[in-house]
């Protein structure tokens, strides 16, 4: 049956987290079922308070073959890191 | 019992002496239905059509067995004979079980299991909702916890009912067949007997006669969405909650209780 059901990617936001993180994938017949499956498979141990699912086919990914041209050029540009600034104490979650 | 539910209510009247027994029976019935249904669902583990459904059914089973533990532990205290939840679950015979007859029916195929689940989830929704207002604070607290679980169970089973009923020709035929078969056990769900009436009068349990029509409306709405036909009304010959069961319960208990019967007191 799995071959008939599309694959969904699952993203969970943990209780303490601010953003949804990719946790895995699963098969489901429709979006509602995907949320239920994600709840049953990935939040059994109170891992999260919010779930996103998206059809894997709808994700557009970068091509690993292009990794060099996409990511290598950033390697020698350390000045882009904000490590040269003093962070005010009031600023949280940076 | 007064420590639990406050001073005896006027409704006790001259039958006050009967009330602890009825209170025990009332809680025991709820616990038995959850336990038997949870055990039935757990039979699916390793056999469900999908890995994800396997986990989903196991989650439902664990919720139900958790409810059964709370309810049976409380029933044991109300009875006052020193029986804990394990003694009530594993050391009673079928005729002493007081679950609804519907809960003990065999799983059949996946659609059959889901129809049974949906009928009982929607029953539990009404019952737990009503029990939140119980004069018995402990029972109300158990119901409040169980209701959150039950809302998810109902979401899950009603979703599948629509998916299968309004699915393929084959899936439609199968769930309609399951519904036609299981419908005969539904009159028991909201048919009050003397214990129910006594508990209702004492404010411990909700009025089954009032909850029945609400359940019926929910059932009709879901059946319409699932393009399924409500079967004709059935006579009411089933009395699981009085200990009169179909042959299936004994077989199920044989497996469930085997270890404690063969090795009394075994722990791990």
Write the layout of secondary structure elements.
The complex is a heterodimer of chains A (94) and B (268).
Chain A: E1 7-13, E2 21-27, H1 31-42, E3 50-55, H2 67-71
Antiparallel strand pairs in A: 1-2, 1-3
Chain B: H1 2-5, H2 19-42, H3 51-79, H4 85-90, H5 110-131, H6 137-165, H7 169-182, H8 194-201, H9 208-225, H10 247-262
Can you offer a commentary on this structure?
- The complex is a heterodimer of chains A (about 90) and B (about 270).
- By secondary structure, chain A is of the alpha+beta class.
- Chain A is about 20% helix and about 20% strand.
- Chain A has a domain at about 1-60: Phenylacetic acid degradation B (Ubiquitin-like (UB roll), Roll).
- Chain A has a 3-stranded antiparallel β-sheet with strand order 2-1-3, with helices on one face.
- In chain A, strand 1 (about 5-15) and strand 2 form a beta hairpin.
- The longest helix of chain A is centred in the middle third of the chain and has 12 residues, at about 30-40.
- The radius of gyration of chain A is 19 Å and the shape is flat.
- Helix content of chain B is about 65%, strand content about 0%.
- Chain B has a single domain, classed as Ferritin, core subunit, four-helix bundle (Ferritin), CATH 1.20.1260.
- Chain B is mainly α.
- Chain B has 10 helices and no strands.
- The interface of A and B includes residues 28, 29, 39 and 41 of A.
The count of helical stretches of chain B stands at 10
Q: What is the arithmetic mean of pLDDT of chain B?
A: 93
- What topology, given as strand order, has the largest sheet of chain A? 2-1-3
Largest sheet features of chain B: none
Helix content of chain B: 55-70%
What separation lies between the terminal Cα atoms of chain A? 45 Å
Radius of gyration of chain B: 18 Å
CATH architecture annotation name of chain B:
Up-down Bundle
Number of helices of chain A: 2
User: Outline of chain B, from the CA principal axes?
Assistant: globular
Uncertain spans of chain A: none
DSSP strand content of chain B: under 5%
């Amino acid at each position: 049956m799995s071959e008939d059901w599309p694959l969904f990617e699952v993203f969970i936001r943990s209780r303490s987290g601010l953003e949804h993180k990719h946790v895995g994938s699963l098969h489901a017949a429709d979006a509602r079922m995907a949320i239920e499956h994600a709840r049953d498979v990935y939040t059994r141990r109170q891992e999260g308070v919010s779930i996103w699912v998206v059809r894997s086919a709808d994700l557009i990914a970068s091509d690993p073959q292009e990794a060099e041209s996409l990511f290598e050029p950033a390697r020698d540009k350390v000045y882009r890191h904000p490590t040269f600034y003093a962070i005010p104490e009031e600023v949280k979650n940076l | 019992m007064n420590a639990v539910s406050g001073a005896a209510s006027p409704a006790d009247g001259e039958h006050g002496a009967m009330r602890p027994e009825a209170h025990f029976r009332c809680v025991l019935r709820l616990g038995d239905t959850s336990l038997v249904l949870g055990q039935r669902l757990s039979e699916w583990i390793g056999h469900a059509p999908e890995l994800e459904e396997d986990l989903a059914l196991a989650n439902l089973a664990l919720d139900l067995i958790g409810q059964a533990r709370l309810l049976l532990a409380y029933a044991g205290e109300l009875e006052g004979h020193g029986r804990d939840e394990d003694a009530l679950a594993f050391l009673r015979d079928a005729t002493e079980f007081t679950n609804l007859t519907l809960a003990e029916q065999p799983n059949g195929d996946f659609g059959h299991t889901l129809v049974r689940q949906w009928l009982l989830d929607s029953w539990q929704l009404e019952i737990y909702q009503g029990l939140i207002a119980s004069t018995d604070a402990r029972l109300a607290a158990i119901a409040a916890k169980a209701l959150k679980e039950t809302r998810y169970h109902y979401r899950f089973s009603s979703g599948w009912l629509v998916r299968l009923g309004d699915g393929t020709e084959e899936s439609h035929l199968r769930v309609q067949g399951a519904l036609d078969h299981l419908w005969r056990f539904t009159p028991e769900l909201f048919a009050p007997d003397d214990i129910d009436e006594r508990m209702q009068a004492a404010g411990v349990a909700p009025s089954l006669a009032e909850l029945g029509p609400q359940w019926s409306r929910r059932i009709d709405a879901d059946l319409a969405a699932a393009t399924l036909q409500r079967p004709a009304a059935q006579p009411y010959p089933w009395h699981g909650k009085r200990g009169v069961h179909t042959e299936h319960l004994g077989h199920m208990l044989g497996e469930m209780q085997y270890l404690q019967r063969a090795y009394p007191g075994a722990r791990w």
